[in-house]
Amino acid sequence: MMTERGITPSQTVGPFFAYCLTPEAYGTRGIASSEVATADAAGTRIRIEGRVIDGAGEAVPDAMIEIWQADGEGRYPDHAANAAFRGFGRAETDAHGRFAFTTVKPGPVPGADGSAHAPHIAVSVFARGLLNRLATRLYFEDEPANETDPVLARVPAERRATLLARRTAPDAYAFDIRLQGEGETVFFEI
């Protein structure tokens, strides 16, 4: 005998980040942090601040942002010359959807085909309602190498601004992430 069952809810991510994935969950162990720059990190120290907002322009208060990057000389953390540089960080959004990272401005890095990629930071977004993370890149609006970056060149010109962090101070940039709607951030399939 078969019984009638209703539709079961979809599986989604969150809102549990504060319990297991964000820096605060690790306390003093330092496994993940919004402080990416270490004392030996080559490059100019910067702060990146932003907001995660939904299609209606409302804050997403329980998202987690992950970043992965090279140091100021274009070296990823496994390079012996900067062994302590993490190159990886996590930050949760607050009640207003805000997040921040302290890091160094990365240098250009070689792509798989040997071409140079403009300084950028790989960004992942995890939030309620998302089955998979969203992946994007943060580029710097004042970086001349953006003109020849092979990934940025594949993004339609009218959408590139969604990937550009704006300089707000000599050592600070703003980068907002819009999950959908007008001005939606460009996300990449990986």
- Estimated helix fraction: under 10%
- What's the mean pLDDT score? 84
Taking pLDDT < 50 over at least 5 consecutive residues as the criterion, the unreliable ranges are 7-19, 25-31
Radius of gyration: 18 Å
Name of the CATH first level: Mainly Beta
Question: Tell me about the biggest sheet?
Answer: 9 strands, mixed
Q: Work out the helix count.
A: 3
H-E string: HHEEEEEEEEHEEE
Report the β-strand fraction as a percent range: 25-35%
Number of domains: 1
Give the structural class.
mainly beta
Global shape: globular
The CATH superfamily name is Aromatic compound dioxygenase
What do we call the CATH topology?
Answer: Protocatechuate 3,4-Dioxygenase, subunit A
What is the β-strand count? 11
Distance between the termini: 44 Å
By CATH, the architecture is named Sandwich
Family: Belongs to the intradiol ring-cleavage dioxygenase family.
Keywords: Dioxygenase, Oxidoreductase
Protein name: Protocatechuate 3,4-dioxygenase subunit alpha
InterPro entries: Intradiol_dOase_C, Intradiol_dOase_core, Intradiol_RC_Dioxygenase, Protocat_dOase_a
Report on this model:
InterPro entries: Intradiol_dOase_C, Intradiol_dOase_core, Intradiol_RC_Dioxygenase, Protocat_dOase_a. Keywords: Dioxygenase, Oxidoreductase. This protein is mainly β and 190 residues long. The chain has one domain (17-178): Protocatechuate 3,4-Dioxygenase, subunit A (Sandwich), CATH 2.60.130.10. It contains 3 helices and 11 strands. It has helices spanning 17-20, 23-26, 150-153; strands spanning 45-53, 64-68, 88-92, 98-104, 109-110, 116-117, 120-126, 134-140, 164-169, 172-174, 177-178. The strands form 2 sheets. Strands 1, 2, 3, 4, 7, 8, 9, 10 and 11 form a 9-stranded mixed sheet that branches. A two-stranded antiparallel ribbon has the order 5-6. A hairpin with a 2-residue loop joins strand 9 and strand 10. The longest helix is centred in the N-terminal third of the chain and has 4 residues, at 17-20. The radius of gyration is 18 Å and the shape is globular. Mean pLDDT is 84; it is low at 7-19 and 25-31.
